[in-house]
Amino acid sequence: MSEEKVEQDAGPEEPSPLRLIGTLAIAGLASGIIIIAIYLATFETIKENKARELRESVFRVLPNVTKMQKLLLKEGKLVVSYEEEKGEEPIYAGYDDSGKFLGYAIPSDGPGFADTISVLYGYRPADRKVIGMWILASRETPGLGDKIYKDAAFVANFDDLAIEPPIVATKKGKTKPNEIDAITGATISSVAVARIINKGNDYWVSKLPEPGAEPAYVEVATPAASSEPVDTQAP
Amino acid sequence: MAKEQHAYEEFMKGLWRENPVFVQVLGLCPLLAVTNSAINGLAMGLASFFVLLGSSILVSLLKNYIPKQVRISCFIIIIATFVTVVDYSLAAAMPVIHKELGAFIPLIVCNCLILGRMEAFASRNTLRMSIADAFGMGAGFLFALVALGGAREILGVGEFFGLSLFGPNFEPWVIMILPPGGFITLGVMLLYFNWVEERKNQIDKQLAAEDGVN
Amino acid sequence: MGDLGWIFISTLLINNFVLAYFLGLCPFLGVSNKLEVSFRLGLATIFVMVVTALCAWILNTYVLIYAPYLRLISFIVVIASVVQLIEMAIKKLSPTLFRALGIFLPLITTNCAILGLAIFATNKGYGLWEGLVYALGAGMGFTLAIVLMAGMRQEVEKANEMPKLIKGFAFNLIISGILSMAFMGFAGLFSSS
After folding, report:
1. B84 to chain C: which residues are within 8 Å by CB?
2. Start-to-end CA span in chain A (Å)
3. Contact with chain C for residue B74, Cβ under 8 A
């Protein structure tokens, strides 16, 4: 009886390297299959969610807009784009029901008080004015810096704002068309938002077509299904 | 019948006596990062629970086929697969929560709790016990997340699960929802658990002394 | 202040990986009882982070465009392999360094700070140089935090009157909280334009 037990306790033989590699390979393969399956299952829904989120923020910064399309800078000219391209820097054009161009929605970001602030703002080239602002991402201090999106009065600063001379945040009360009221106790965050929009304008305004020559709205029944993979973690 | 009781004990162990956060002090990274509100804590707890349960089941089923030498790598592959599934599922079904938890969903992979459970338990025990253990540890982790998230939300914003508790005149203790608040709240909670443990030890000692005298 | 400068200082001080983002807590709370040891762990971490940032960028740019769903798994595999290779390289090239650092390298693999670095850098869309500077700042921030922690714990050990209840993790967490609060003071370091 005890001999049997000793034999059993002699221990299993060392598995061959082939077995080790084989196990890892099978594990990797199975894992890959499962991941691809879930990816394909959720692909459409995730794409729709992202498109909806984008639409909502664009409509927020461009009043009266009901249609939008994405524009990319290609060889110095602004063209309509449906494909998702890596490293692209898109801006968005908003149109009303009749297809009339109303303004651009321009994303921009920069350092705030705590970390990077991501802003989307509406810009009307006809009179060179900012017509809306929405914070896409921020990690500003709750209760203070986060008023840049929680304080309706601050956000309203950007509903009708001249961009020349560059936007300035004042503490005392705005008097000029290019001034905004900084938030008490969150001056740095307020100044950051102004600076971020100025930076966006510095980059884009010179590249935009003449007022009246904006890309027209192209009606599509269903936008060409993008074959580019979708990223859950993409900004 | 004895097995049923055993499994139940296993479950309770994870929930309280060997609570992964308050007793074993594991899984801290996601814990502090997402507990700035109770709902975020709940979401992370459920996501981690799903990964823990799935991985435990799979590892327990496959434990006889995984060679010892590559077991950690296999565990990690299994865990990472489940985490990817959770990541994409959340992005599709609950995009708002997915955005709140952000990069911390993939970081569930490094949650030392999950890997630790695979190594210490699921790879050595039956399927039934592993499931009980996963439920227990997962529930314990979820409990800790919601407790911490709730405490920080109540003190830092005056809300619980988004419901305002104290009305508009409440002056929120803002630091609670910022990083230092996370550290300090957990520290205080651990302090409480230490105290409970200490009291229990004292009472046990007293009882033993009395028994000895008798 | 240039973008790279902002990234570096921001990660080092203002958005410190440990004290603001809660990454790398396991070694931070677990291994930080000796100053010398903590410093070496920090150095090892910086090195691993920079190499990881490089590999993550290569992966992101050339491979993961076609299969973003493999991101998590490929990052983990890369990190584990990088740590393994570094360990073997150090063992061959400098046995003394290996003896000093050796035990820590496997620990670094499960450090959420490394994986967190790769994921954050991907989310922020950093290019090669930004990613490397980010890794440098993150690693140095981690080292800074862990060294400060070790220094404080060593001082505290000399104190006699510590109540038994508070010893251990509870106390370390409270110290970390105060340290984190101190680092919050760095916010707004660059905002004078």
Report:
1. 69, 72-73
2. 67
3. no
Q: Could you tell me the residue range of the domain that residue A186 belongs to?
A: 45-207
CB-neighbour burial class of residue C73 (10 A; exposed 0-12, middle 13-18, buried 19+) = buried
CB nearest to C15's CB, from A115, A230, A235: A115
pTM here? Answer: 0.83
Best probe of the C interface among A29, A33, A34, A35, by most C CBs < 10 A, is A35
- pLDDT, tens digit, for every residue of A50-103? 888 888 889 988 888 888 888 887 777 777 777 766 667 888 888 888 888 888
User: What are the residue boundaries of the structural domains of chain C, listed by start?
Assistant: 3-184
Distance CA C16, CA A8 (A): 54
Question: Are C14 and A230 inside 8 Å of each other by CB?
Answer: no
Is B74 close to A39, i.e. CB distance below 8 A? no
Specify the number of domains making up chain A: 1
Whether the CB of B25 is below 8 Å from some CB of chain C: the reply is: yes
Residue C170 at interface with chain B, using a CB cutoff of 8 Å = yes
CA–CA distance, B118 with B47 (Å, rounded to integer): 17
Burial B48-74 (b: 16+ CB within 10 A, else e): bbbbbbbbbbbbbebbeebbeebbbbb
C85 residue type, one letter: L
Q: Measured between CA atoms, how close is B5 to chain C, in angstroms?
A: 33
Tokens 């927020």 found at: A60
What rounded mean pLDDT belongs to chain C?
Answer: 83
3-state secondary structure of A136: strand
